[in-house]
Amino acid sequence: MSVLKVENLTVSFPTPDGEVRAVNDVSFTVEAGETLAIVGESGSGKTVTNLALMGLLNSHSAKVSGSAVLQTKSGPVDLLAIDSNDLRQYRGKDIAMIFQDPMSSLHPYYTIGDQIIEAHQVHNQVDIEVSRARAAELLGLVGIPDPESRLASFPHQFSGGMRQRVMIAMALVNNPSLLIADEPTTALDVTVQAQILRLLKDLQKEFKMAIILITHDLGVVAGAADKVNVMYAGRIVESAKVFDLYANPSMPYTRGLLDSVPRLDRPHTDRLLAIPGQPPSMIALPAGCSFAPRCSRITEVSGNRCLTQMPELTVRGDGHTARCFIGERVSQ
Amino acid sequence: MTTPILEVKDLTKFFPLQSQGIFSKVKGANKAVNGISFTLNAGETLGLVGESGCGKSTAGRTILKLYEPTSGSIIFEGEDITNYSPAKMKPLRTKMQMIFQDPYSSLNPRQTIGSIISASYEIQKITPAGGVKLAVQELMERVGLNPEHYNRYPHEFSGGQRQRIGIARALALKPKFIVCDEPVSALDVSIQAQVINLLDDLRDDFGLSYLFIAHDLSVVQHISDRVAVMYLGKVMELAATSDLYKSPHHPYTKALLSAIPIPDPILERQREQIILSGDLPNPVNPPTGCVFNTRCWKAQDKCRTTEPALVHIGQSQVACHFPD
What we know:
The complex is a heterodimer of chains A (332) and B (324). Chain A has 11 helices and 12 strands. Chain A is an alpha/beta fold and 332 residues long. Chain A has 2 domains: 1-94 and 176-275, 3-Layer(aba) Sandwich (Rossmann fold); 108-172, no CATH class. Chain A has an 8-stranded mixed β-sheet with strand order 6-7-8-3-9-10-12-11, sandwiched between helices. In chain A, strands 2-1-4-5 form a 4-stranded antiparallel β-sheet. With 324 residues, chain B is an alpha/beta fold. The radius of gyration of chain B is 21 Å and the shape is globular. Chain B has helices spanning 56-63, 86-89, 113-124, 132-142, 159-171, 189-206, 217-223, 241-246, 251-259, 265-270, 301-305, and strands at residues 4-18, 26-41, 45-49, 71-76, 79-80, 96-99, 177-181, 209-214, 226-231, 234-240, 311-313, 316-318.
């Protein structure tokens, strides 16, 4: 059974210049124990999708619609239908999140121990010593040496990689069935990134949890994901199993992204194949396909359809959907 | 072999750390750059890579004399500029420029693009042939901006376009040497490729030499002729790009290369990965001996006591007691 089933999620923000539809009719499922990667460039809506799931958007400024059913320890719950007070009993327990910037996501005035213990105490009516032991256990699991004594340390005494480990420990303290990791390694150096990705993989096996991994790095996706959603201008434009996506990208944007990354495993050719232009303004989205103004294959579709009509997500293979009028797979 | 445009010898830059209070004393130093040497030939791109805190940006800024070097020497076109005063540096600045990492904070939000790019003409009291406006518009066109946007302000541009403005500004005085400090790391992948291609073209058109500072080894591989790998203020390995990536000699270079994910799920899951333990040590108290010994899987007693010198292995230069 799916841990999370999101249907027709739309998030819009009214602004003086017009409505910004940051997330537009997004649907996907996450199965137990699997990793779903959401890739896209800045402004593609990948972070807002997940903030909406966690109930972290300001209800005065964001309009959220659709449904997101999470299998919790006490049955299925629609995260978007319940109010924020009710959401608190699931947040941090059944669904947890780690953020991009480990420097600013821990409270500088409280010890590491206080912060992890609090996350445990909120959801468990147990003695504080039980929570302390659990916190130490988790710190040990995420690879922090001498966990009992490090509980008394403050965040500034830890390096960036260590703080991200603390964030992971805090997120896992209540055995969530779903962990949302929003660019968990973007602020870290590559050697530390490798450590954290390995750690997440090991913990996923141990805790049997599902992970939604939000990232812009196609290399990270290749190593960590089972399924991938590619987002562009607020919509899912392609969705496939990871091996299928890299072997047969069906949407010209996905192909373009893969081609524009400089790669170590290939001889450095003279030029990168850049995607021309830039992502559209979210206030004035083009009438047809959002990617059409930058697309090199637009002439293959007759009658300017790409400029006037938004293509639907259509099936391209087993578990593989793409949003493009060009039906056949983009050749290598 | 062509003549070097830049020679750096044993360059160090220490930032003194002072204790708090009125009678503050210097109680140590952050050894950001700790004795690096290299040459840069005309028309060549040297990549300077390393993790955050390894001193690569400080090295770039010290070479341009934006910081006073602590010791060592910087020789630019045969001229020793190490101890030049700012006034004496000014005429030389027409030949050396910099492109910054953050296209948001490196442009003055209250100035139009035209005045940002033309500021260097004003400062150097140079009137380009055909007038300032024409020269600026030609530059804008060359870097892929619409020349009609001459009177617009930075906030009207996207990140990638702003980086193009920064590039146009650096090119205004027709420099020979540009320090590019992480010029694409703030940009999205699809835009990053555009800017890398632009920098590539400009180098060929204007005969530029780049010192290309970046943490992303795949970007550096793409643009550089030679690469220097830095760790904790020191150069660990310096080699031609193809040699460095094909047969790295230093364990740190190996670990760094192996940490970079490959965007191909089949290759990515097959390959052996070296995962370094621990974090970068504090540059105030770097480890004795080889600075990498605390994270190195090959470290032996000798590494903890004796610092390895940068020596030639084939065409490469490597600072390691037990190179591969």
